[in-house]
Write a structure and sequence with these properties.
The strands form 3 sheets. The protein has a 5-stranded antiparallel sheet with strand order 7-3-10-9-8, sandwiched between helices. α2 packs across α5. It has 348 residues and is α+β, with helices and mostly antiparallel strands. The protein has 3 domains: 83 residues, Winged helix-like DNA-binding domain superfamily/Winged helix DNA-binding domain (Arc Repressor Mutant, subunit A, Orthogonal Bundle), CATH 1.10.10; 163 residues, GAF domain (Beta-Lactamase); 86 residues, Enolase-like, domain 1, CATH 3.30.390. A hairpin with a 2-residue loop joins β4 and β5.
Length: 348
Amino acid sequence: MTSDAACDAELTERQQKTLELIIQNYVRTGYPISSKSLVEIMGVSSATIRNDMGVLEAAGLIASPHTSAGRIPTEQGYRYYVQHLQSGNYLSSVERLTIAHQFHQAPLDMDQWMRLAAAILSRMSESASLVTAPRSEIAQFKHLELISTQGRTILMVLILQNGDIRQRMLTLAEPLSQETLTETAARLTRMATGLTATQIRARLTGLSTLEQEVLEIVIELMGEAERPQIYRDGLTGLLDRFNNESSGAEQALRVLEEQSALEILINEAPSIGDVRVVIAGEGRWEDISLLSIILGRYGVAGYATGTLGVLGPVRMRYGRAISTVRFMSSLMSNLMFNIYGEDVTSST
């Protein structure tokens, strides 16, 4: 049976409960659960449990690791659980209030916010975490300053529409007065306001050597702004969860350490308010076939957004992880709007 067919399997309420118990037991203990244990928990006959387990196994939702062993969930079983059985909020009201209080107590510094978000996600989900700083999908120019520092050296300060600030030191061919630098910056700001790097590049002709040099660096800085800055946390704890499963630990290390692998995942993040669950690579990514990843997006649509998520073994606490990602996404979106609301309103 294909994974899609398994996730669409028609199960009775008791069969769904049986699958849920098998998954919860395996996530908690790492061991198969026997039909005898299920009989004791559910209070039905052994024949009924054996019949229900046979239905679940035929649907590809559970499997027996050994001939005489109990049952464990399959990848399809986890997918069915996430799609059909996982609901509600697995974070208590106290936990939600505590998380919100930590953010309100933190300084209004984006770097500290990102580090705090990564730490909270890792701790609350008991998994490794990743968070990207908010950015526009396409960087847009807002303002430029050129500041004389010493001799031929100047400081370039570039401000983007989403509030991102980029700086670069330049060495000129000859020293220029601050008045000349200010006039040049004002002229380039008038020309480039609201433009993307591609649009600015199309306007490089007919400019002075200084203006061309400055705009070339502006284009470079805008390109850097479009690449996500990624914060990580919880790697050590994640490796402990794999126990002796070295292949899974190696996959987790590779994903969290390689920028290209993380960027592929970030591009899979859903729209703001939604959560995406990727179990065992979904048959598309062999590199994460032993991992599950839960992704969310936060920010202000059309202005600036970031990605957050947790990564762990396929045997993870999906309900808690999904609840944590969903709550953090909502919280950080609200914080961004409250702080940058005036800029957001004026730019939309």
